[in-house]
Inverse folding.
């Protein structure tokens, strides 16, 4: 499957580079037009954008990893590159991104005021466009890593596939429970991490519809992937799963959050801040769910390679 892996790796690099170009454009000459389109308050649209450090590190990190995977696609050595790529893309890089976003939001929220946190939050929201392209690149990188692992080591073994499938369900269930907790009993202490305004802390969260849908959808998909583990037939389940996790669900989440933010923007800066904080308290849950989603994508790549080898053996 070397040819397929090479093609997927090239597409992955192209998508990640598109993400870099879009991020640069959004933080320069496209900032004001996009904010006008989103109906953002003038104090945000006319402001100088605050560069979201977390998202920028994430985008550049993903570009580097996709380049490494393409450069090593012919390698028949042990699966060190594949394992490191999966670990970086599914855990280390998202954790670093989350930490940088958290630190920057806390610093801005406690030292620069609610207007600045609204500007930073808006920048992070708009950066969902280039990050979306990068996430597609990440999905392809995870899938190719899964294919390469099975091709190199576990061509006739299904145990690692089943184990990873179960782990993804456990992680997604944890994410779902955390999301419920932070929007209810832990709301006030979580908001206090980001802002010191008593008015915002005492508000009830504005439920981010897109983020909640993403968490629920990923949980359901991970469960379906486990239930279908005995299938050795077509690649339909894997293709549908990859399409949903790599594109469909993230895009739907972005669209719903964008529509909701458009409506919130019409209310005023305080509502914008409240909505952005509501999204922020879900960052940990979404981060954990993205780990589950990443494992599911690796599993899909493994299952495609395993089924391909199984069909060759049966012929």
């Amino acid at each position: 499957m070397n040819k397929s892996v090479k093609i997927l790796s090239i597409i992955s690099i192209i998508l990640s580079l598109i993400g870099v170009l879009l991020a640069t454009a959004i933080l320069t000459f496209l900032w004001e037009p996009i904010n006008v389109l989103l109906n953002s308050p003038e104090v945000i649209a006319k402001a100088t954008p605050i560069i979201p450090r977390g998202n920028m590190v994430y985008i550049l990190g993903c570009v580097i990893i996709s380049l490494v995977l393409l450069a090593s696609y012919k390698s028949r050595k042990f699966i060190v590159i594949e394992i490191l790529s999966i670990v970086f893309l599914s855990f280390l890089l998202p954790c670093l991104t989350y930490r940088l976003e958290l630190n920057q939001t806390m610093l801005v929220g406690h030292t620069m005021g609610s207007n600045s946190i609204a500007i930073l939050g808006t920048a992070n929201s708009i950066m969902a466009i280039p990050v979306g392209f990068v996430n597609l690149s990440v999905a392809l990188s995870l899938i190719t890593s899964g294919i390469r692992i099975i091709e190199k080591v576990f061509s006739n073994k299904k145990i690692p596939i089943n184990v990873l499938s179960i782990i993804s369900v456990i992680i997604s269930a944890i994410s779902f429970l955390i999301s419920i907790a932070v929007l209810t009993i832990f709301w006030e202490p979580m908001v206090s991490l980001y802002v010191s305004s008593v008015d915002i802390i005492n508000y009830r969260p504005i439920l981010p519809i897109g983020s909640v849908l993403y968490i629920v959808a990923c949980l359901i998909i991970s469960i379906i992937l486990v239930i279908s583990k005995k299938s050795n037939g077509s690649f339909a389940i894997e293709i549908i799963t990859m399409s949903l996790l790599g594109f469909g669900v993230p895009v739907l989440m972005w669209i719903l959050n964008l529509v909701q933010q458009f409506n919130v923007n019409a209310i005023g800066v305080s509502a914008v801040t409240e909505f952005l904080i509501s999204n922020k308290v879900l960052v940990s849950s979404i981060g954990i769910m993205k780990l589950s989603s990443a494992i599911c994508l690796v599993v899909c790549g493994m299952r495609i390679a395993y089924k391909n080898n199984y069909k060759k053996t049966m012929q």
Q: What stands out?
A: The radius of gyration is 20 Å.
